[in-house]
Amino acid sequence: MATIRPFRFSVVAEKAQSRQEWLAKARSAEDWGYTTLLVPDHLNFDVDPTVSLMAIADATSLRIGSHVFCNDFRHPLLLARQAANLDLFSEGRFQLGLGCGYLAEEYQQAGIPLDPIGIRISRFEEALQIIKMYFHQEEVTFSGKYYHINGAKTTIKAVQTPHLPIYIGGGGKRVLSIAAREADIVGLVARNTTRGLDWTSALPDANKEKLAWIRQAAGERFSQLEFSTTIFIAAATDHPGPAAKQIGSRIGLTAQQTLDCMQVLVGTTDQIVNELQKRRELFGISCIEITEPHMEKLAPVVARLAGK
């Protein structure tokens, strides 16, 4: 069994076009009891996440984080420096979320080849090594298949020690095994496919298999890991059965599967509270990331569970 930790709740923000819009989101999240605001890294976000995150940290007490930086769009040496700067200027409140990249449209827009997933994961694994070297060494020298770095100085250091928290989420064995060995926070999420999310990969049996992969890869550090998931769909309702049936018809699940899906929450406040407690007991999931459209409706749940 994973270590049972107190609940903490984050908001995964949608895009905004000005400082005022970003700060309004952040202040709402703070007022509703969330402790962290996470910003995705997409080309169609007009404001770079490093800029919006710093504005949020400057204006609120929230922790901040990337959800997640796309490795293929950011050289790991420069990203490590950006992460260290974000942690320094937020006074130790930054969480570094990293991913391999997956949206074909973005790769086409940027003129970057979308390599097969195995290559992207291998490149990501090298990048992760470089980023950790930056955090722990005075100088980085690295020679791999995808990256070559010769004596890069690491003058800016993060505030958090031994390094700022690293988040890696995934739905497949290889990425989750990397997360088990290298991350501090492991995201249990549905597998991305060319047709979208495979929602069946976020059902309880699939999560049991994921935990087995993680336990095997993590070894002795398994008890140190924090587990999270991202809530993409939520319905606060007194009639969970019909709501689950309707949602399930959109995502290819039965009503019961929808109620059991790790990335869906349906029901009254009491029912959702009980469901999150059950998932924590079964899978150790204590870090709940709520996508922005649902942050207000789930605020009563946050008030009941945060820090407990």
Protein model, in words:
- With 308 residues, this protein is of the alpha/beta class.
- The chain has one domain: Alpha-Beta Barrel (TIM Barrel).
- The chain has 11 helices and 15 strands.
- Strand 1, helix 1 and strand 2 form a beta-alpha-beta unit.
Give the tags.
Luciferase-like_dom; eight-stranded parallel beta barrel; single chain; two-stranded antiparallel ribbon; alkanesulfonate monooxygenase activity; flavoprotein; alpha/beta; 308 residues; TIM Barrel; LLM class F420-dependent oxidoreductase; 15 strands; SsuD_RutA_monooxygenase
At the first level of CATH, the class is Alpha Beta
> What is the approximate shape?
globular
Q: Helical proportion? A: 40-55%
Stretches where pLDDT is under 50 for at least 5 consecutive residues are: none
Extended strand count: 15
N-to-C SSE string, H for helix and E for strand: EHEHEEHEHHEEEHEEEHEEHHEHEH
Look at the helices and sheets and give the structural class: alpha/beta
Average pLDDT, to the nearest integer? 96
CATH topology: TIM Barrel
Main beta sheet = 8 strands, parallel, barrel
- Report the total helices: 11
Assigned CATH architecture: Alpha-Beta Barrel
Pfam families: Bac_luciferase
GO molecular function, one term: alkanesulfonate monooxygenase activity
Keywords: Flavoprotein, FMN, Monooxygenase, Oxidoreductase
Domain Luciferase-like: 16-192
